[in-house]
Design brief:
- 22% of the residues lie in helices and 27% in strands.
- The termini are far apart.
- The mean pLDDT is 89.
- The relative contact order is 0.21.
- A hairpin with a 2-residue loop joins strand 5 and strand 6.
- It has a single domain, classed as Beta Barrel (M1 Pyruvate Kinase, Domain 3).
- By secondary structure, it is an alpha+beta fold.
- Pfam families: MOSC (PF03473).
Length: 211
């Protein structure tokens, strides 16, 4: 992982359209592909990117789903495939980033756009269907390379090849793997719950702790 103030490149910016998985009727935006040239990013994410299940995806706290090149390399080796950007439904791929080493509140500062990490990506049946493995979701969770959601603190134009500066969060450290593997009230101590609620955690995930 880069240190504070060091920069990395955006490997890819990805966008998708609403499509239907084989054997399904509900549409999904999980099929994304890298786009050339700049895109517009606002508080809801990449303009014109498909988000079909608003109950679990999208919204200001989960506006952008990103993965690091380390995550994609891991999955390429694990699955024996050449994983292309957008394969898991991510909007961004950042060079030299490992989502397992990120924390809620970490920020990525591009020329115009500022993103803040809010949560881990939790696998679902749609991801399993997209991969073609009914039991892929628990495998994805256990592996610990889930990618991460971001809110948009500052919108603007964004494009592949752009430099991004990493700014680590200075408050309570809530690691992405903790959200992925332990984020249920019964698996956290009261002190952990209180501390994690003090971070800029995504609202859907805060609700899991406010019980």
């Amino acid at each position: 992982m880069k240190r504070k103030g060091q920069s990395m490149k955006i490997r890819a910016v990805c966008r998708g359209e609403a499509t239907t998985l084989p054997g399904k009727t509900a549409k999904t935006g999980i099929f994304k592909h890298a786009v050339q040239g700049p895109v517009i990013v606002d508080a809801e994410g990449i303009v014109s990117d498909a988000v079909c299940n608003r109950k679990h995806h999208g919204g200001p706290d989960q506006a952008i789903y990103a993965m690091g090149s380390v995550d994609l390399d891991f999955w390429s080796d694990t699955l024996g495939l050449s994983i292309e950007p957008g394969f898991f439904g991510e909007n961004l791929v950042l060079e030299d980033v490992d989502s397992a080493k990120l924390h809620v509140g970490d920020r990525f500062l591009a020329k115009e756009v500022v993103l803040e990490v809010t949560a881990a990506r939790i696998p679902c049946a749609t991801l399993s269907a997209r991969i073609g493995e009914p039991d892929f979701a628990p495998r994805f969770r256990k592996a610990g390379h889930p990618g991460f959601y971001c809110r948009v603190l500052k919108g603007g134009m964004l494009m592949a090849g752009e430099d991004v500066v990493f700014e680590p969060y200075q408050g309570t450290k809530l690691p992405i793997p903790v959200i992925l593997q332990r984020f249920r009230p019964m698996q956290l101590t009261e002190d952990e719950r209180a501390a994690y609620l003090d971070t800029p955690l995504a609202s859907r995930f805060r609700a899991m702790l406010e019980v």
